[in-house]
What we know:
Elements lengths: L1 E6 L5 E6 L3 E6 L11 E9 L7 E2 L4 E3 L14 E9 L2 E7 L3
Parallel strand pairs: 1-3, 2-4, 3-5, 6-8
Antiparallel strand pairs: 4-7, 7-8
Amino acid sequence: MNKITLNWKKQREYFITLDNDTILNFIAPYVQKFKKKYNNLFLILKQNNLGCKTVTLPDNIKWCGGKIPILSKLPNAIDLITLYYCNKYYYAIFSPDM
Length: 98
């Protein structure tokens, strides 16, 4: 089991190849107080050549449609998660196997 921390303060896009089941933790991006500046973030997850790896994401993600999506499990599948950060929550849209 891999544990990876994504620091959204340092970059807005991460590309991760899943070689093992993985737990992801997020460090929130900077948000300027009293200004409506929020962050659009991109997480790209690629299965390795064997596939079937799982990912555990933080609890403060609110998914479009209200359901946690099922990541693609096929070998070399690529999933895109688009995140919008606002008020301690990440609002997410899932695009399976691009």
